[in-house]
Amino acid sequence: MRRLALALALLLASGALAFGASLAPPRTPEARWTTPGGEPVEAVAGYRVVDYRDAGEGGGDWALVGQGRAGGNGTRHLFMVEGPLAARVALSVPSEAVAFMMDGDSNEGFATFLIDGQEVGTWDMYNRSMQTLVVTDLPMRPHTLEVRMTGRKRPTSRGVHVSLYGGSALVREVIAAR
């Protein structure tokens, strides 16, 4: 399985917190958060899922912030259609890593990802179907996740949408092979 490593070291103004980020391969159970049989995924990128928050149509567990428009068209994920708009959720379980489960098609624009109010980065979500952004090396505590529309897009995109399935708190534990 090939992983697209984004390996970032980001220097944050207060405390020089460094972390890593990578995208899980698309079209795998960990990118969909469920197995082909529909059971919840228990592990992502070698971490155990300890708290999952579903975005669902209209936001689910996530709060929508801003004046934009969102929907879902009867699907199990949130479409942020017009900005300015962001989706935010507070995870309740301490973790050392988190994951954002995203989707993307020909309508997607750029999305900015934040953890505890600190920007992780901005990615082009155009045609990034079922992508999971995993951010590691975080302080062990409950984290707040946020995804923001930027209003920017590549020229070939038909829109600036941002699509979100959910997010999760992850902890590193030895996971036995099944």
Description:
Helix content is 2%, strand content 44%. The longest helix has 4 residues. The protein has one domain: Galactose-binding domain-like (Jelly Rolls, Sandwich). With 178 residues, it is an all-beta fold. The strands form two sheets. Strands 1, 2, 3, 4, 6, 7, 9, 12 and 14 form a nine-stranded antiparallel sheet that branches. The protein has a five-stranded antiparallel sheet with strand order 5-8-13-10-11, with no helix packed on it. It comes from Rubricoccus marinus. This is Discoidin domain-containing protein. Keywords: Signal.
In short:
The protein has 178 residues and is mainly beta.
Topology:
Blueprint: E1 4-5, E2 20-24, H1 29-32, E3 43-44, E4 47-54, E5 63-66, E6 69-71, E7 78-82, E8 85-90, E9 97-103, E10 110-115, E11 118-124, E12 131-136, E13 144-149, E14 162-172
Task: Assess the beta-strand content as a share of residues.
Answer: 35-45%
CATH architecture: Sandwich
Please report the total strand number as a whole number: 14
End-to-end CA span? 17 Å
- Helix tally equals 1
Protein name: Discoidin domain-containing protein
Keywords: Signal
Organism: Rubricoccus marinus
Signal peptide: 1-18
